[in-house]
Amino acid sequence: MANRYLDRLRRNFRDLAGERFCTLVGPGGATTLSWDGLERDCAVWGAAYRAAGLAAGDQALIFLRHTPELYGSYFGAMLEGLTPSFMPCSSPRQDPGLYWASHAELMRHIQPAAVVADAATFAEMAAAGLDLGEARRIEVEALDRTAAAAFAEDVPEEATALLQHSSGTTGLKKGVALSYRAITEQVESYAAAIGLDGSDAIVSWLPLYHDMGLIACCVTPAYLGTPIVHIDPFHWLVKPGLLFDHLQAEGAAGRAGFTWLPNFAFDHLAAICGRQAAQWDLKGVRAFINCSEPCKPASFDRFLAAFEAGGARPEQLQCCYAMAESVFAVRQTAVGAPAHRTTVAAGSLDRGKRPAPPQAGEEGVELVECGQAVDGIEVRVLDEAGDVLPAGTVGEIALSGRFMFEGYNRDPARTAERMKDGLYRTNDLGFVDADGRLYVLGRLDDLIIINGRNLYAHEVEAVANKVAGVKPGRVVAMSEFNERVGSEVLLIAAEQRTGDERPRAEIQRDIQTAVHSVFSVVPHRIVVVDEGSLVKTTSGKISRKENLARFGEPKGVRP
Amino acid sequence: MTRDEIFRLTVEAIHEETGSDVPITAATTGSDVPGWDSLAHVRIVLSLGIKLNCEVPIDDTYQAANVGELADVAARAAGA
What we know:
The complex is a heterodimer of chains A (559) and B (80).
Chain A: H1 4-15, E1 20-26, E2 29-34, H2 35-51, E3 59-63, H3 69-79, E4 83-86, H4 96-101, H5 104-110, E5 114-117, H6 119-127, E6 136-139, E7 160-164, E8 176-179, H7 180-194, E9 201-204, H8 211-224, E10 228-231, H9 233-238, H10 241-252, E11 257-261, H11 263-273, E12 285-290, H12 297-307, E13 317-322, E14 329-332, E15 341-345, E16 364-368, E17 372-373, E18 377-382, E19 395-401, E20 407-408, H13 412-418, E21 419-420, E22 423-432, E23 438-443, E24 447-450, E25 453-456, H14 457-465, E26 470-482, E27 487-496, H15 504-519, E28 525-530, H16 544-551
Helix pairs in contact in A: 1-2, 2-3, 7-8, 11-12
Chain B: H1 3-18, H2 38-52, H3 58-61, H4 67-78
Helix pairs in contact in B: 1-2, 1-4
């Protein structure tokens, strides 16, 4: 079967030559990359891959910061038949030595055929002693700009198009392998669901190593021919109003704007830009889509209250339920209509229960829907035995459909654990109401989602365990929702070894440095306590729930 | 506004934006304050700008080694 994705990319090179592919926005201003510029970049990168001796099916890890080379290196790899994967670089406040040293296990596991980076990043890796193994080092500064490769015409649609590493630590990241067929089917189905086409525009500050940034804001628009405005993520954090500047500009040019944001971003925008709301005209924005962490009605309310003066309306605020294993979107609210909300009794949200309105005296929890089915993927809600539950009952969300992943890269055991009887078990807890709307409630495992970033509590604990003075095995990582931030925050409690005389403030600081360096997340609270202070379950395990009650302020519905 | 007042407002902004109540001195660094991540840093600097009625240059704040130096950046921005 023809490779529809690469065929479309090549057709876009021809049909859209001279038109804008992407505007990259950073501290130094804006740079526009046209479709013919992208084609030239892809040919240059293809030649570099070929010169390095790479062959079809080889995996290339791309560690690049915000630069037009992101696109040429990525699509150039695809057009050469390679399998690319964007990877995050260290951030300005991280210890680069600790950060890159933590990649050693990942490199051993993936054994990439090539690593793409700039000279400074390769130098950071070398200084940290990171062994890249047999991988060819392809340095941006050493590219031969005069070379050009003819694009491969024979990459099959069933070939692995890309790997997404969006969850887990650097050492244990899950590499989600996706075929060209899967990404094409997802793109076509999701575009139809939200009414996105080449006449619209996507404005994003999301990094491309994140599935929302990659699929919604790079792979999808490249296929549809939708212009992209890509803002440097660190620059956006400082100047979040840039998102509105560009949405407004696209609207003025007659393009309906789409943007995808994790929940915390709605609060960040309201907190930082709310006072200047009237300076923007947001009426032309088609959708602000909340995705990648649980959508909070209060965050929508704060956003609307802040930007009503700029023309923000409830029907612009949408929700999407997505994950890398299904390429991206599973469910999506109806663009053009406000997302449905419901209030249910807080005590009715456990597995096997049927959420119902609160009775007098009962605490209520307001939920916002994640929408209706995206064509091509089916949601089932399962009980502990794996049997399908009736509508309206809380259980584990499981997926099947025509654009599911192929498996985890080099990890058949994990693939088998999550794919059972043709269903992908998400570990998400939720229910579907009588009208077919999905509500996502929390996790069955210890995944913590902080500002859209996924990390597992047991992996955080493993890192904190190595800090001097901490009693090995006596650390617990927990999370709670923080209204001010608009996301979960990370809490860590650790026991200090009896006899250890280090000041606790030093241990706290070392835990903070280690966790930040490995996970790019700063714990919100770190408590160091005497040996024996953490609460254990009857089976002798440290209880996250009980320790959260002791050391945090539990809110929401996380089990 | 005196340098001491600006330092006090800096500490106030850090406590407000991180949600932490750890004691802060001029020698305190970001690693000593739980919750002081990239997002909190941006909010601290913007909050400080509002308190001082000036724009505190965020790029300069990334060069500050500790809270004392952060207050110095803010003081320069405020013309103190």
